[in-house]
Specification:
177 residues, mainly alpha, two-stranded parallel sheet, 7 helices
Length: 177
């Protein structure tokens, strides 16, 4: 199931068996780790986490690939790593999108939109001249707008889309640990 993700991000479950396939059992350690066909420049990107995390995030990213190709392309352009975290945020000093457990157990469409949101922060960070980036209200509103648009494209719940559109961009901004 994760062969496409393996080729895009070097998705690594920790198993080096090139003949194994991903399983729906989160306790199973099997995955497709054969990237011999991967000749693109993205093969240095990696995700190394549990199969359960891989499956859920992989399904969210696949939802973007199928229904919002522009957001899927942006993930390829700006983000190197998606990892488990205590708080869902873009950790600019590590170039990681962190996903908290509670976001993994909810609506897959919303999770996909959160990934788009945090990836948009990566775009802001990477495209801002060095030393001038700051997580501003303007940036947050742009990220929320991208998230709402992605959620709409992938068929998310209207009440969630409307909720996002009603936000003013002020919230707790994650500072470096």
């Amino acid at each position: 199931m994760f062969e496409w993700l393996s080729q895009v991000w070097g998705f690594d479950s920790g198993n080096n068996d090139s003949d194994s396939n991903a399983s729906n059992n989160s306790d199973d350690n099997d995955s497709d780790n054969n990237d011999s066909d991967n000749n693109d420049s993205d093969n240095n990107k990696e995700i190394s986490v549990s199969n359960s995390f891989q499956e859920i995030v992989g399904n969210a990213v696949d939802l973007l690939r199928r229904h919002s190709p522009q957001d899927y392309q942006a993930l390829q352009n700006y983000q190197a790593k998606i990892t488990p975290a205590n708080s869902t945020a873009y950790y600019y000093w590590r170039n990681e999108i962190g996903i908290q457990d509670s976001d993994l157990n909810g609506d897959l469409h919303y999770l996909a939109s959160l990934i788009v949101h945090e990836n948009r922060h990566a775009k802001w960070y990477k495209e801002t001249p060095s030393g001038t980036w700051q997580n501003s209200q303007q940036e947050e509103l742009d990220c929320i707008d991208c998230q709402a648009n992605a959620l709409q494209r992938i068929g998310g719940a209207w009440w969630r889309i409307n909720y996002l559109r009603a936000q003013d961009g002020n919230h707790y901004l994650k500072e470096r640990d």
